[in-house]
From TrEMBL, chains A, B:
A Pfam cross-reference name: GST_N_3
Lineage of the organism: Bacteria, Pseudomonadati, Pseudomonadota, Alphaproteobacteria, Sphingomonadales
Organism the protein comes from: Allosphingosinicella flava
Signal peptide annotation: none
Domain GST C-terminal, chain residue ranges per copy: 85-215
Protein name: Glutathione S-transferase family protein
Length: 224, 224
């Protein structure tokens, strides 16, 4: 059985859990707080980041959420998440990287720093200016999603793909931390309602991070 | 013919140029300075980053260096750069991401900011503390390369791969900017000499960025 080292609000672990869920790959969760820099974890992954996926019986350790998603795309035929022609696959990967790099750095990471790490680790008060900036940029990201969904059924094209999983994973963490104002983004809220109702997404939405509570709409498919 | 939007010291463009060179994919270079935020370029790539690869005749635009490398790995059989079993391919992708994320953020990006952008754009003096930190971390990265090369012929395993191209691309930019002290890293210098002597690498080493000159050893295969 695969063991997934993760913590509930890690967006990269969430992306991977969505992919494993869609593909029906069984796994058990191992709680890891990367900010604790546990020696055994850093020995396993020199980058010190979640997710790490281990299959002890077969001696396999997989590191880096992008590399792990590609691994399961190659080894599990069910529910292709990087589908289509080479050009369509490039578009899926472009968008997944966009969400993993930009949406994460500009929105999710500052929210995690201010609302989770400061609460759990340093016990400082959150910096309201950083939070305001993150929420402003989040709005621009939702505009871009609206634009994509004006032209396409799913974010990267006509079918569900890793781009949708990555966007939903990052947005779900930002939403948990109160960083998303969904008003005025009809296309994106419709899409996110559909994502939230997928069986792969339900277990994530049911989880809670100790000490930090999500807003009331967080796990509601219809936002109300 | 593919048109590659890039600038000489963009490490992600260099990685891609090495891959195109190894695979024998013809392309012409189009000079782009992403910090100028040229409207037509941002319209092409909302991320505003190089490299972007365009094939006007076929109406294809490829964005994100990782996605582009995967595209050519899928479409050009010659010289596989993500070779081996699924687990070996995961290791190639883990290391390529490590160099693209960590080596870039901790070493190459600060060097580019201090020694290129400040020179070309803001005309401020470089921050010597930032430069010292980047060079210190560069040394730790070379230690990790030494460790990998103690156990393997190439960085990700027994054969040349995208991991080698990514590492060499980032190190070549850091080296151009005077940020690498190669002393005491025998395994890595031996490996880098071999990389430098590859036909795919020679055109990159011959290029110069206006105003900024590399150290004397920069394009010498034997470092002297």
């Amino acid at each position: 059985m695969w063991q997934l080292y993760q913590f509930p609000l890690c967006p990269f672990s969430r992306k991977l859990r969505l992919l494993l869920g869609e593909k029906g790959v069984g796994h058990e969760l191992v709680r890891e707080s990367p900010w604790m820099k546990r020696d055994e974890f850093v020995d396993m992954n020199p980058a010190g980041q979640t997710p790490v996926l281990v299959e002890p019986a077969r001696g396999i350790t997989l590191i880096d959420s992008g590399a792990i998603c590609e691994y399961f795309e190659e080894t599990v035929e069910k529910s292709p998440m990087i589908p289509g022609s080479a050009a369509q696959r490039a578009e899926v990967r472009r968008l997944a990287a966009w969400f993993d790099d930009r949406l994460y750095a500009e929105v999710v990471e500052p929210l995690l720093n201010e609302r989770m790490k400061k609460r759990l680790v340093t016990r400082d008060a959150p910096d309201t200016r950083v939070l305001r900036d993150a929420m402003r940029v989040a709005n621009a990201h939702l505009d871009y999603l609206d634009y994509l969904l004006d032209h396409r059924r799913w974010l990267a094209g006509p079918v569900l793909s890793l781009a949708d999983l990555a966007a939903a994973a990052h947005l779900s963490v930002a939403d948990y931390l109160g960083g998303i104002d969904w008003r005025g983004h009809k296309q994106t809220t419709d899409w996110y309602s559909v994502m939230k109702s997928r069986p792969s997404f339900r277990p994530l939405l049911a989880e809670r991070m100790e000490v930090i509570a999500p807003p009331a709409h967080y796990d509601k498919v219809d936002f109300f």
